[in-house]
């Protein structure tokens, strides 16, 4: 048992955003050197931004409230009003950010639809607008890695997309909320992914367990534009070093252990794959997410929901007979066993 669980009894499989800070983060927060970040003199924020930029191989970084704010500021800094951006149909900026890119950046999304949510170089080339007085200008490609369906885009596709974008003078932004998971899965450095982008947003507050924040990285000019916009939307913060201190622990420590979460996810998937009435594609479990479908005739879902309550298991409601389970720092192997056991006991034709 992780000793520092602070008396939390529930086993929370809903997301990796539920990760509360570790004891080391709480200590770091207590001892953080702070300044006023709007004046630009909070040393801990500066340290976090510099470390993030260095780790991702970019010139500069900017500490922001959330991944949503990071994507908004990035796309805003890269584009002008009325331009068009190529992105994916299920991408977070399309589905989960209240159309901020339309409301605030005033750009138009040109969405690519593929079943696995991948975007390929030919999609970019095909969908760039011609230089025609009637049409908007295409100026940016916005990608996601890892994808929210749990898949990771291989480096060769990242590279080919980047080269295609550059051939036509387009910028590339990456929503890398879980870029450290993607790098873990690809067994590469985050830099190897980030080299095929002009900017990246990543979250400290998901699998990296910090209580707050994301960082965007890119060149200095891009970061300065984003910094001005951040102030405009009320995102200039004062003693933000309290939060950045947790972010530093997240970057230094938590990025190195994500393979444990991935192994737990694989373990759950491979155990569930053995069950008649549960369908899971083990090959598609590439990060810390497992999606499994149940057969209504063979699985008592009502009982499962009740048993989860009794066993203190938290899981999001199913969608079209499909559940998503997410592993993270506060989930251990024995918690996975409890989930598997609970699922097994809800099969109708147990032998
Ligand atoms: C979580 C997430 C975000 C947004 O992060 P918040 O901090 O929740 O605003 C953006 N993109 C992807 C792919 C995400 O998973």
Automatic annotation (TrEMBL):
Q: Which residues carry this modification: N6-(pyridoxal phosphate)lysine?
A: 206
Write down any Gene Ontology CC term. Answer: cytosol
- State the source organism's domain of life: Bacteria
Q: Please provide the record's keywords in A-Z order.
A: Lyase, Pyridoxal phosphate
| Identification of the protein by name | L-threonine aldolase
Which Pfam families does the protein's record reference? Beta_elim_lyase (PF01212)
Q: Does the keyword Lyase apply?
A: yes
Give yes or no: UniProt keyword Repeat. no
GO biological process per UniProt? glycine biosynthetic process; L-threonine catabolic process
């Amino acid at each position: 048992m992780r000793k520092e669980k602070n008396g939390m009894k529930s086993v929370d499989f809903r997301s990796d955003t539920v990760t509360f800070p570790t004891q080391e983060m709480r200590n770091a927060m207590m001892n953080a050197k702070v300044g006023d970040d709007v004046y630009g003199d909070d040393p801990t924020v500066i340290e976090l931004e510099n470390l993030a930029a260095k780790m991702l191989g970019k010139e500069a970084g900017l500490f922001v409230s959330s991944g949503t704010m990071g994507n908004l500021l990035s796309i805003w800094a890269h584009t002008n009003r009325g331009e068009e951006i190529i992105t994916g149909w299920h991408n977070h900026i399309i589905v989960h950010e209240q159309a901020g890119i339309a409301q605030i950046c005033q750009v138009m999304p040109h969405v690519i639809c593929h079943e696995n949510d991948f975007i390929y170089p030919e999609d970019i080339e095909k969908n760039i607008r011609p230089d025609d007085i009637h049409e908007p200008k295409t100026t940016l490609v916005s990608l996601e890695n890892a994808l929210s369906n749990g898949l990771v885009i291989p480096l060769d596709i990242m590279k080919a997309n980047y080269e295609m974008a550059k051939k036509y003078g387009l910028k590339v932004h990456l929503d890398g909320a879980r870029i450290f998971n993607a790098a873990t899965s690809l067994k590469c450095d985050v830099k190897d992914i980030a080299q095929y982008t002009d900017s990246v947003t990543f979250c400290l507050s998901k699998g990296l367990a910090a209580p707050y924040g994301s960082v965007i990285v890119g060149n200095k000019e891009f970061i300065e534009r984003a910094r001005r916009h951040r102030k405009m939307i009320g995102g200039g913060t004062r003693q933000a070093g309290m939060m950045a201190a947790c972010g530093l622990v997240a970057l230094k420590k938590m990025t190195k252990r994500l393979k444990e979460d991935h192994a737990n996810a694989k373990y759950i998937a491979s155990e569930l794959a053995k069950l008649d009435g549960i369908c899971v594609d083990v090959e598609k479990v590439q990060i810390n997410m497992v999606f499994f479908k149940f057969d209504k005739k063979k699985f008592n879902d009502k009982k499962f929901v009740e048993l989860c309550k009794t066993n203190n298991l938290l899981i999001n409601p199913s969608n079209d007979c499909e559940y998503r389970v997410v592993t993270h720092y506060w989930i251990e192997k024995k918690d996975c066993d409890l989930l598997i056991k609970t699922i097994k006991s809800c099969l109708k034709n147990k032998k």
